[in-house]
Amino acid sequence: MGVKDYRRVRIRGATRSVYSCQGGPMLIRMELPHLYEVRRLEELSAPASLPLLHFSPGNSPGNGEHLLLEFTPPTSAAWIGSFACGISSGTALTMVLSSPDPLIAFVVAGGIGYSVHVNSPEQCQLLPVSPVMFVEVLSQEGMAVLGSGNALAVYDAKGLVWFKRVVESDLKLQSISEGLIHFSGLDTEAGQPVRLSAELGSGRKVG
Fold first, then answer.
1. Contact between residue 83 and residue 109 where contact means Cβ atoms under 8 Å apart
2. Among 50, 131, 197, 198, which lies 20 to 30 A Cα-Cα from 21?
3. pLDDT tens-digit profile of 169-193?
4. How far is the C-alpha of 109 from the C-alpha of 183, rounded, in Å?
5. Residues 20 and 92 in one domain
6. Are residues 158 and 113 both part of a single domain?
7. Host domain of residue 144
8. Half-sphere exposure for 50 (CA within 13 Å, toward CB)
């Protein structure tokens, strides 16, 4: 999914109307190498001199709240992103993390996931898992695993490795070891929980 899936990115001046997600504290995880700086802003502290870009899924305006972030790329001017939030709940994930690509940041705003190229924010894309409920960063492998209630997405430095619905519901990540992702979930047809494994590099189920 690309920019066409978003409402048109707009740049606004000094008069701004943006709000932080109310789902709880924001996490910042920058374990993977990155070539930019990022910080969270409050509306009153947002520098009026910087361009403000608005991002939201084209098929949903979110819940009316926004996550406000300032990005400082390595080779272009700083800019501020206002990311529409999804779920207004204490259980909704709100975070920024470095992706396997050092120029791309993953932003999760109330469960809505965005992949943002910091030098070219018009290349912003939706993350395929929705809502994003957990993230696992694999520093040694240079990979990131993101999950929703029923699907997993794995990224490396070249981008999305695979995305797949792996259970019916209640997906929980158990562990990642020896090239395998171990997870559990609910088989609604059988009406019972299941434990499964998939290859990290391909998504092929094993066992």
1. yes
2. 50
3. 999 999 999 999 999 999 877 778 9
4. 24
5. yes
6. no
7. 128-207
8. 20
